[in-house]
Amino acid sequence: MPSAVQQDPGPPSMRRSLGVKDGVAIAASSTAATTSIGIGMGTLAASSGRQTPALLLLAFVPILGIALSYARLNRSEPNCGSGYTWVGRTIGPWPGFLTGWVVLVGNVIFMAYTGAVTGSVVLQFLNKLGLYSVWGLRLDPASTGISTAVGLLALVVVTITAITGVRAATRLQMGLLIFEYAVLLIFCGYALVIGDQPFSLSWLNPFEIGSLQAVAQGMVLAVFFYWGWDAAFSVNEETRNSSDAARGGLIALVVMMGLFLIGALAFQRVMSTGELLHNGPQALTFLGGALAPEPWASLPLAALMCSAFASLQSSVIPTARGTLAMARDRTLGPVWQRVHPRYGSPAVGTLLIMAIAALLAVLAVGIPKLNDMILTAVNSIGLTVALYYGLTALACAVRFRDSLRAGVVRALRDVVVPAVSALTLFGLGLYLVWDYATMSDHFELSPDNGWFMLLLPVLFILAGLATAAWAKWVRRAPYFRTGQGTDADAITLPMDGDGGPLPNPVEG
Could you tell me which of 360, 319, 336 has the C-alpha nearest to residue 456? Predict the structure, then answer.
């Protein structure tokens, strides 16, 4: 696959055919607003209660700073490796590799658990059609095992579509997005009007959240809600203009914020906090049933299914391209670099990611309830997402630190906002690490056990450091020696947005 500034069009599906609209589709599908609203509002309410809308607004502030950092870095160095490449060249190869590793592991876990959620939604549909068992097997949407089995089929389908090319995938995703957002806006808008729970301005007041621990936990969960907009930056080599990727990601992020607020307010207008917690992953289905008779009541469930499928597909796309960037730097094995001769997509990497996600989903069946499964995944991924977002924003502040002498506007844009956003996420993460480490006095496989919630992200990071050590001392990847010698590092950087050439961050 050619680098972002080379003229070779590459294989058919790797040519520069994507624009802003495609970036929005990939970023919005990966963020999966309908899925987050439909299955996650109860989890968020467990931390923030009726102040969930306030928490979503509060979390948007550092996330917007992270997004602006991505856009600034992308303008200086378009690369499908995004944070992996930017952090590695600016801060150092070890944190750079860890950034890429966390994205890989986080997306694989997300695919594993979202596959189970997709299976649960399919089972809910079958139940609505009157099908409750097959060959004596009960089709229970709350069963982790049955939901996972159905979700594995969904993983196979989205993997096939991801291999056949990004352009076709984004067309499908745009169609799914239009349908699911139309349904979401109609039902949530109607709920805002007729809901019997009295609206209160306190819902928008973050200072009424019970404790600092609740704020920190809720903020990390909210970061997980917003996670995914950066998928637009993973298809730079397939985008007509690198600025299209940045615009697509930023547009999707702002739209997601609006949808999250509308969804949170609508749910609280119809459900009490207790009802929201009780319904959990079926909250959107409950909302549909409360607002409309059948068959219209099933439309939110259909929208949730579309969102789940789209988010699975849009997760495997950036993950496979991230591993492609790592493979060309020899920090991962050459198998991840194999491109399909017809479709031009990293087909082998896509298949491997699907296989790992499927294996993880099967292993996770040991957690008996789907609600517990989702909560454990969100807690683990939320911490790791905060880590790699923070590292990328910090890389922006370090790379453009000379902007501190170039005027207030550039200093704020290039250094201050990225640095504050990074420190905010690092602070939240460190506080939660301390909280998890002290909240339990024994280990238990439960999402309520602090040691278990802390163990998962620690294992992810340790595995990443071990893989990095192997790449450095056994594979002898040039990424760890000089930062030179790969497609990503050999490119000639484009002109700075202010008219001057950018310095090589490795040399300068």
Answer: 360
